[in-house]
Amino acid sequence: CCLYGGGDRKQQVAELKSGVDIVIATPGRMNDLFDSGDLYIENITYLILDEADRMLDMGFEAQLRRVLYGIRPNRQTVMTSATWPSGVRRLAVSYTKDPIQVYVGSLDLTATHSVAQIIHILEEGDKEKTFFDFIANMGPDAKVIVFCSTKGKTDYLSVECIMKRLPSASIHSNKEQCDREQAIADIMDGTAKILIATDVASRGLDIDDVTHVINYDFPKNIEEYVHRVGRTGRAGKTGESISYFTRENWASAGELINILEEAEQYVPKELYDMSERFASRQQNKTQNPKRGFRSGSRW
């Protein structure tokens, strides 16, 4: 059975009490039912931690550890992770015995080569016009996921799309579970051609025929960028990722250049300039820690 927040708790408990062999759960609901005595974990023999890096990023490590302590030590454990940060390594060392590591591709952080990555260097105030110009000219078979940094921005763009009569849906953590499920259903069956989302949709979603990913707001870390790009160009298909990159994102310029160069993508000269300026600024701060820096200069 599936256990997740926002779903019918009584129905989930009833399914557990009827007897199940496989439980798929989010950390929060799993702990809730474990604490209430409705979920018995002592006899679990096969444990899978999917998207382990994402669960750690979202602050679930304490909840995971609580449950892991209650499961029999001779279980078989599988951890899957798109990246291999120190937190995931620590979790693997703590809760597995003599683990075997299997990886597909490289352990280095790279974006899929089946996606063309396009970077637009622009001002914050130019994003909206650039976005709707693209939407107005996209093909009839296009299906787009748009990533925003905040729930408020997600709602704003969603309302603007509705006002322009564009077939769209939106998803973020404040949405009711039924609304999230409906949004996913709409984009999957083609009722909606545009899904506007926060990073709640950057992992785990396997939506057929997504042709474009638009990073309306560039993510705060490069790992999330890689995950977002991976929502298109799946299962042997190609896709296109379009990112709006502003002066506020200049700290990510160097890492983004590495991703682009590794995938043999075009790197705008402005991006190189931003990376060099940021590196120079960091060096000056190290050499002159008490010296202030004036803001407002371009890049």
UniProtKB/TrEMBL annotation:
<dbReference type="GO" id="GO:0016787">
    <property type="term" value="F:hydrolase activity"/>
</dbReference>
<keyword id="KW-0067">ATP-binding</keyword>
<dbReference type="InterPro" id="IPR001650">
    <property type="entry name" value="Helicase_C-like"/>
</dbReference>
<feature type="domain" description="Helicase ATP-binding">
    <location>
        <begin position="1"/>
        <end position="102"/>
    </location>
</feature>
<keyword id="KW-0347">Helicase</keyword>
<dbReference type="InterPro" id="IPR000629">
    <property type="entry name" value="RNA-helicase_DEAD-box_CS"/>
</dbReference>
<dbReference type="GO" id="GO:0005524">
    <property type="term" value="F:ATP binding"/>
</dbReference>
<protein>
    <recommendedName>
        <fullName>RNA helicase</fullName>
        <ecNumber>3.6.4.13</ecNumber>
    </recommendedName>
</protein>
<keyword id="KW-0547">Nucleotide-binding</keyword>
<dbReference type="InterPro" id="IPR014001">
    <property type="entry name" value="Helicase_ATP-bd"/>
</dbReference>
<keyword id="KW-0378">Hydrolase</keyword>
<dbReference type="GO" id="GO:0031047">
    <property type="term" value="P:regulatory ncRNA-mediated gene silencing"/>
</dbReference>
<dbReference type="InterPro" id="IPR011545">
    <property type="entry name" value="DEAD/DEAH_box_helicase_dom"/>
</dbReference>
<dbReference type="InterPro" id="IPR027417">
    <property type="entry name" value="P-loop_NTPase"/>
</dbReference>
<dbReference type="GO" id="GO:0003724">
    <property type="term" value="F:RNA helicase activity"/>
</dbReference>
<feature type="compositionally biased region" description="Polar residues">
    <location>
        <begin position="280"/>
        <end position="289"/>
    </location>
</feature>
<feature type="region of interest" description="Disordered">
    <location>
        <begin position="278"/>
        <end position="299"/>
    </location>
</feature>
<dbReference type="Pfam" id="PF00271">
    <property type="entry name" value="Helicase_C"/>
</dbReference>
<feature type="domain" description="Helicase C-terminal">
    <location>
        <begin position="117"/>
        <end position="275"/>
    </location>
</feature>
<dbReference type="Pfam" id="PF00270">
    <property type="entry name" value="DEAD"/>
</dbReference>
<dbReference type="GO" id="GO:0003676">
    <property type="term" value="F:nucleic acid binding"/>
</dbReference>
